[in-house]
Amino acid sequence: MTVTGKDLNRISQALGLSAGELLRALDFYVLREDEAAPEGLRNIPTVNTERGAAYVALRKTRSGDCVFLQDNLCLIHAARPSVCRAFPFVFHEEEDDLAWGLSAVKEICPGLGRGPEVSASDLYEIGSEALEEILVSREFVDEWNRTAQTPSAISFVEAVLTDARFSV
What we know:
This protein has helices at 5-15, 19-23, 82-86, 120-147, 153-162; strands at 26-30, 47-49, 52-58, 69-70, 73-74, 89-94, 97-102. By secondary structure, the protein is α+β, with helices and mostly antiparallel strands.
């Protein structure tokens, strides 16, 4: 699951993690030059690192679970990334309006269709916040990719944690 700069800062603040400690909870997924970005990542910016352009995401365990999932509970629920806050919904802009869809099926998310219905105003608020975080991260990453003289994963995380745009 990819993360935004705001996500990184939120997690760092909540857990009291330095850039180096936070880096251990992250993966930087580098696509091969001949590999196209998966459809779900087409709007997510790649970050220049020492290994090449990469997507920044929370690390997964051997079982494929998020590193912050333990006994089926999120250890960082209050500071969870925006993609988790929005799950199972996905959002994008369509003709200057907010559009949404579902990113999961009942086999993946057994809670679909259970509990209270999500109102249109709640969807709009969740989606607007998620898209704003992506937009701010994209602007930051574009600047980073243009200006970082010796790009590396750790220097990227350090830059994110000190940038006022990602304050929590």
